[in-house]
Write a structure and sequence with these properties.
It holds the Pfam family LAGLIDADG_1. The chain has 6 helices and 5 strands, in the order βαββαββαααα. The protein is an alpha+beta fold and 175 residues long. It has a 5-stranded antiparallel beta sheet. A hairpin with a 7-residue loop joins strand 2 (35-43) and strand 3 (51-62). Helix 3 (97-107) crosses helix 4 (115-127), helix 4 packs antiparallel against helix 5 and helix 5 (136-152) packs antiparallel against helix 6.
Length: 175
């Protein structure tokens, strides 16, 4: 069951919500313990350079506590979507570089375990031109930081690495 009230939030601006310091600290603690911050390459055949940079924040909870994720969604301006997976887990996902960065800026002073994630996310943000297509050189530069998320998130199965993007660029294409 997926709630998509607002549809895809990719590229949508996050209107800053008024959270108390206590709420920011609570949400940051939740993200530290039962959440994930991800920057990743997504293979896109319709993109000129073949890959998209995707940023997301995901909060996880046992499905019997899905109401808690819905409460969290209301606190964060109803961006993103809540879904119940087949393994009795629920997740609240927020996708979009600007949305993710704006939320992380609010939570950053309260994060402990994911401070290094925010530092790398800021480096990516400083490289990304807003509303412009990434050229190959910049995509590979951003990839250096995206690859750091593999170590930060203990990711083992990641296939879309900077090396894969570089290989894609080096492979002759007929398009």
């Amino acid at each position: 069951m997926t709630e998509r009230k607002e549809g895809n939030t990719e590229g949508r601006e996050f209107v800053s919500v008024i959270l108390t310091n206590e709420e920011k600290a609570y949400i940051a603690g939740f993200l530290d313990g039962d959440g994930s911050i991800m920057f990743q390459f997504i293979r896109r055949k319709d993109y000129v350079n073949g890959y998209q940079v995707r940023a997301s924040i995901v909060f996880y909870q046992k499905d019997i506590h899905v109401a808690h994720l819905r409460w969290l969604k209301t606190k964060l301006n109803s961006v993103g979507y809540v879904r119940i997976r087949n393994d009795n887990m629920a997740e609240y996902t927020i996708v979009g570089i600007q949305l993710v960065l704006q939320i992380l800026e609010q939570l950053s002073p309260y994060l402990r375990l994911k401070k290094s994630h925010v530092d790398v996310a800021r480096k990516i943000a400083n490289l990304l031109p807003r509303y412009q297509r990434l050229d190959k050189k910049l995509l590979l530069k951003v990839g250096k930081y995206i690859d750091q998320f593999q170590q930060l998130n203990y990711s083992k199965r990641r296939r879309n690495t900077t090396m894969a993007v570089r290989k894609f660029f080096d492979t002759p294409r007929n398009d």
